[in-house]
Design brief:
The complex is a heterodimer of chains A (306) and B (251).
Chain A: H1 3-14, H2 47-60, H3 62-76, H4 85-105, H5 110-134, H6 142-145, H7 153-180, H8 192-216, H9 220-234, H10 249-252, H11 255-267, H12 274-298, H13 302-305
Chain B: E1 3-14, H1 21-28, E2 35-38, E3 44-56, E4 61-65, H2 72-79, E5 87-93, E6 96-99, H3 112-122, H4 127-141, H5 156-169, E7 174-178, H6 186-201, E8 205-209, H7 213-219, E9 222-227, E10 230-236, H8 237-250
Parallel strand pairs in B: 4-8, 4-9, 6-7, 7-8
Antiparallel strand pairs in B: 1-3, 1-5, 2-3, 9-10
Helix pairs in contact in B: 3-4, 3-5, 4-5
The chains are: A mainly alpha (306), B alpha/beta (251).
Chain lengths: 306, 251
């Protein structure tokens, strides 16, 4: 598929063609163009179809958001010697420090505590990054949105891709940790791939929903940031759920727990419970349904809100 | 074949942070030409375009004239598909290249070559395509070795050359331009106008908003005069410019 054709195809799908007879002509406002020329043209496509089309077309513009996502990272570390590996180093320093200190705190062996905590931190970085960053998916792309017509989902894919790149740098720490503590996930490690994919799929609906709401109500990014901070402490990352007496309600209702464990457990050589997959899939479906409803209603207004 | 048709298009902007009377008053006392009203929810809103019906066909070179805030930029953005009209319909055939802001997709820290790739990507060029056209684009900019330097070292005229070269290299069927950016030197302006003429010659549409009557008369055949978001005159560019002059001297 040629890059330039993508937008052209989208446009031909989006805009019904109206055939106008004869030479191009001008009409002044008020003087309505005869209705006859529009007759026979197909009815304007439904907003739901346009919303779905936008999401679909956005995936096909991977060349653009792939470039932009990389560029975001490169720009952030421009002219620094280590570049994006500063991500790795700062995450590594934090994980190392907290791992040694808190293992003593919780009276646990470092070998038991640190790998799972380190991986928890790295995966949380991905989850929180997707949620927080996506609040500015559209706000941050204001200058682009007001200049060129692109599927708006492109800006969400850019954020998701950027966070995936950051995750790619951070996961190196876990590889080091796994070597030090001699962890080999075995075949169950492969389950991490569908989990990562599912997290990205969720990142897209979160981006559409939060990006849209944040564009209209500028307080939302602040609220989301606060919520995510609390969510971090409610999610078993630096503590283990075994420390909790019985099944705590807050634990079960925390959607982040399921996605975190689906990605973390396989890499530690464990197989996550099947029920976790069901919960995560249910969240995915409900989230997408909600995001599409909102996108159908307000996609057209996003450019006006910026 | 490029074609654009607007049918009774209106665009209203809700202004969410202008709900105080004093701010509304201060807005109304400004010398801009937009209309400020209230929408159904009693929110302050700006009627940027009001009941605009226009048809542009292939080979049309259209000059948009009007005072600041008359709706020229909004109309261009509607034509580009950025604002979907709050009322009315738009039908468009043909690939659009907007040249509203020379800074689109320009990263000052990246080199000229990198910026060609990024800006090209925004306009729908795949990486391979952009690389294939790199020599042609580089030649048009006449920037030579500067293209390997970070763009922050460029003058505004050099940036214009780069931006213009990329925007027109995608061979658009519809070119939309907001204000001829007057920082290019005479040689480049001449070259750019030639390139635009070629573009329009390939059965495209050019819509150019400008305050420069000489440029409009040179470049355009048709004119549209906007006032308060409404079309107040349409026709040959000379006539429309005369009408605009008459309106201004009367005001």
């Amino acid at each position: 598929m040629q890059g330039e054709e993508i937008l052209a195809i989208g446009r031909s799908l989006l805009l019904t063609e109206a055939r106008v007879e004869g030479e191009a002509f001008f009409t002044t406002s008020g003087e309505r163009t005869p209705h006859a020329v529009v007759e026979g043209a197909p009815a304007p496509p439904s907003q739901l179809r346009l919303a779905i089309l936008d999401v679909f077309e956005g995936t096909r513009a991977w060349d653009l958001w792939g470039l932009l996502g990389w560029h975001d990272i490169r720009q952030r570390y421009h002219r620094s010697t280590l570049g994006p590996f500063w991500l790795t180093i700062s995450m590594g320093a934090m994980v190392g420090g907290i791992g040694l200190l808190y293992a003593g705190f919780f009276h646990q062996k470092v070998a038991d505590y640190l790998p799972s905590m380190a991986l928890g931190f790295i995966v949380w970085g991905l989850l929180a990054g997707l949620v927080n960053d996506n609040c500015s998916a559209f706000i941050g792309a204001e200058s682009i949105i007001k200049q060129v017509q692109l599927p708006l989902s492109v800006h969400v894919y850019r954020v998701v891709w950027r966070n995936l790149i950051i995750f790619g740098h951070n996961i190196l720490i876990f590889i080091v940790v796994a070597i030090i503590f001699k962890i080999w996930p075995g075949w169950s490690g492969l389950l991490a791939l569908p989990a990562l994919f599912l997290i990205c799929v969720n990142g897209v609906w979160v981006g559409i929903l939060l990006g849209l709401v944040s564009a209209r109500f500028r307080d939302v990014p602040q609220i989301v940031a606060s919520v995510m901070q609390i969510a971090f402490f409610l999610t078993p990352i630096i503590w283990k759920p075994t420390g909790l007496a019985g099944h705590h309600l807050i634990l079960g209702l925390n959607p982040f727990l399921y996605f975190l464990d689906l990605l973390r457990a396989p890499l530690l050589g464990q197989v996550p419970a099947l029920s976790y997959w069901f919960v995560a899939l249910a969240v995915t479906l409900c989230g997408w349904a909600l995001a599409l409803v909102m996108y159908r209603l307000y996609r057209r207004r996003i450019a006006y809100w910026l | 074949m490029a074609r654009i048709r607007l049918d009774r298009v209106s665009v209203q902007f809700p202004i969410y942070n202008a709900n105080t009377r004093s701010l509304k008053k201060s807005l109304m006392h400004r010398t801009t030409a937009g209309r400020i009203g209230r929408d159904a929810g009693d929110r302050v809103c700006i009627e940027a375009l009001n009941d605009v019906t226009l048809t542009f066909g292939h080979g049309d070179r259209v000059g948009l004239v009007g005072a600041n805030g008359a709706g020229k930029t909004t109309l261009l953005r509607v034509l580009a598909g950025i604002y979907e009209p709050t009322a009315g319909t738009i039908h468009r055939e043909g690939r659009v290249a907007p040249l509203f802001d020379i800074a689109l997709g320009i990263d000052p820290e990246a080199t000229g070559y990198d910026n060609i790739l990024i800006r090209g990507a925004f306009l729908g060029l795949r990486r391979q395509e952009a690389r294939a056209r790199m020599d042609e684009i580089a030649a048009f900019t006449e920037l030579g070795d500067y293209l390997a330097m970070p763009v922050r070292t460029y003058s505004s005229g050099m940036l214009l050359r780069l931006a213009f070269a990329v925007s027109t290299s995608v061979e658009p069927e519809i070119a939309l331009m907001d204000e001829w950016i007057g920082v290019g030197d005479a040689a480049f302006v001449e070259k750019a106008e030639r390139r635009l003429a070629e573009l329009v010659g390939r059965a495209g549409i050019l819509v150019l908003a400008s305050h420069d009557p000489a440029l409009l008369e040179r470049t355009c055949t048709k004119g549209v005069l906007l006032q308060h978001g409404k079309i107040s005159a349409v026709g040959a560019i000379g006539d429309v410019l005369r009408e605009y002059d008459a309106y201004r001297s009367a005001a």
